[in-house]
Amino acid sequence: MAAPLSCCGRNNDIMAISHCGISSTTPKTMSIMQCLRYIVQNEGPRALFKGLGPNLVGVAPSRAIYFSTYSQTKNSLNSLGFVERDSPLVHIMSAASAGFVASTATNPIWFVKTRLQLDYNAKVQMTVRQCIERVYAQGGIAAFYKGITASYFGICETMVHFVIYEFIKSKLLEQRNQRHSDTKSSRDFLEFMMAGAVSKTIASCIAYPHEVARTRLREEGNKYNSFWQTLHTVWKEEGRAGLYRGLATQLVRQIPNTAIMMATYEAVVYVLTRRFNNKSNEFYDF
Asked: Which residues, by range, are in coiled-coil regions (predicted)?
């Protein structure tokens, strides 16, 4: 969810690039390596880790909320019987529910993380507490939910991601069944990693503009007011390229992260399912 990158420029100096494509008033752009070099030269190596604290705090509850909601919604829809079991519609509705709940619950954490990354002060870095106090003083609790609309629109990314992932996963499971194997090996989890990487790449490329809109809405004292107004302003001032600034960095950050996450998720589900089945068999035998 968050890369160890901060914004790479001052408002009247240079195009700022982070994983969400932040911009200033000038049209100059930089590559990932140029951005990293610029941050180190102007803000020091510590600036590469701005927002790391909130990121570490937010990752665990965010993933837990997301996957638990996704699994519960998926199981509920499959048990109700009004839609085809494990159909794309089930995956879409499950991903939408999970994205909505996770975004709503954890938006303040990611808001603080982004604000810290946008802190350009190279001498005195703003602490998490100072950031929270500053945001609260400016707009109260509601201020921590600025950009939440963009997050809701970003749910379409998770929907596309899980529909493609579940489709690839079903094909992989068909091949495994043809091999008449009931147990999963390291090969299966490597395949799940590839499925996660492919699905996330496609989803990110399709829905990336919402990342740009969300980050710009979270900038302090900016000209962006709403989701659609932000997209329109970026399109008008920077063209189509502006809506995809930082996409390369986003992919570098998200693809390995998602690949590992999906394989870990499948491994945990597999282990827990086997343990549950073994306990059920022991009870039945008794």
From this structure: none
| CB burial of residue 116 (10 Å; 0-12, 13-18, 19+) | buried
Residue with the bigger pLDDT between 185 and 180: it is 185
Domains of the chain: 32-285 (1.50.40.10)
Q: Compute and round to an integer the Cα radius of gyration of the chain.
A: 21
pLDDT by residue (tens digit) across 88-99? 889 899 989 999
Instruction: Name the token pair of 142.
Output: 């509601």
Written as six digits, the tokens of 115 are 């604000």
Express as a percent the part of the chain with pLDDT over 90.
26
Q: Are 90 and 84 in contact (CB under 8 A)?
A: yes
In angstroms, the CA 81 to CA 77 distance is 7
Confidence of residue 126 (pLDDT cuts 50, 70, 90): confident
Q: Is 16 helix (H, G, I), strand (E, B) or coil?
A: coil
* 3-state SS, residue 176: helix
pLDDT at 206: 92
